[in-house]
Amino acid sequence: MKQLGILDSAFINMEQPNTPQHVGSLGIYDPSTAPGGKVRFKQVIATFERRLAKQPLFRTRLVRVPGGLDRPYWVKDARFDVEFHLRHIALPKPGDWRQLCIQVARLHSRPLDMGRPLWEAWIIEGLDRIPGLPAGSFAIYTKIHHSLVDGMAGSSIVALIHDLVADPQAAAAEDEPPKLVDPQPSIAELLARASINGIRNVTGVVSGGISTSAQLARYLTAILRKQVPPPDISAPKTRFNRSVGPHRVFTAAEFTLERVQAVKDAAGVKVNDVALAITGGALLRYLAELDEVPAAALAATIPLNMRTRRDSSDDNNQVGSVFTSLHTDIADPAQRLQAIHLSAVAAQRSGDNSPIVDVVKLAGVFAPALTRPVLGFWARNHLSSYLPVNVSTVVSNVAGPDFPLYCAGARLVDYYGLGVLTPGLGIFHMFFSYCGKVTISVLADREMLPQPERYQACLESAFEELEAAFLPRPARRRRQKKPAKRRV
Q: Among all residues, which ones are annotated catalytic?
């Protein structure tokens, strides 16, 4: 039995009906590489059982302390049944890209069963009319609660269910760890632990308050000395800052990694800067079509991997976030990308000193009995609309493996990541690179993005605009051998 860390507990406390706190992934697979050229549902079940045997956390369920007096615990589930978490469905005819996006959006909209281990996966067949896919291809949509994985969730899910070879049974057999089960803790035990932890938490809050105050003082001093830029709270509100509803849309675009790197090298920036520029350009185009372009520049949140910045902790989540400008007030795409690069560098540097980077932790510091009612009241009354700091989206960029992966022997062809929406922030962009491709996945509130296929076109146009700004025409022709567009 293990107690959740502060940030892990924060994502449990932030769970609300309209904004469930799970992340997701969509993998598309070619079964021709599997032994016999076919993959059966029972083979996928066997693969998950084998892989999860090495990941005991995914066999645990959440146990809450009575009255919400303390952070909950992970307990190994005596009733764990992998088949409960795996479901098998098929798209209706004709089985095209838009139908797959609609199905994934519906699945992602549904909260997880909080009484079971906090993940589930759906095997989706019937992908018969998606251009560029081998015959018989299938998809696996997986969702996992954010309390189990952090901002690098794309890599976490990839590592969880994939093998490096098509036939792992032919490789050297490994001894499976024993499937241990924790005894169900009694109410008396949970309350006794809560009373002890209550004293520790008071001490921790006091010391944490002193530490945060000192950090805030250092941050303000750095701003006064012009060592770091002040936080920009002038970004405008857009349709994506409205109250988030219960329904989602999903769409995606795909480019070769060679094309993205060609723009990065020509501009002298990072891949993350190109991702931000594509996002800003797409948002600008989409809002322009609706005649909703604000005069001021849009802003975005960038997740930061805090494992590389601080000492490690017991939290499954070690993620922070900073704000950066998308400079959508600059018309020229080349100048916009350079401005984005400078702003992103400054924002990431400020992550080492800014107390804003840990703002999500506030949802996990105090006992759930205090925090959950406050967060529920906040969400129900749309209080995010009164905040002076506005961001239009989250942009997460994850570098995946550059070698093929396999599930039940089937080769992973394409991979898409789905994030979370929070009150007042209704669109999330995930960039993921894998085997020479870059996918841009978009999760949004359905009312805020009623035409996801139009937004896909905006993403493609925004990137082509960057190519035109930085690459000579002959070079663009050589590199524009991109996969077929997946549209209706």
A: 146
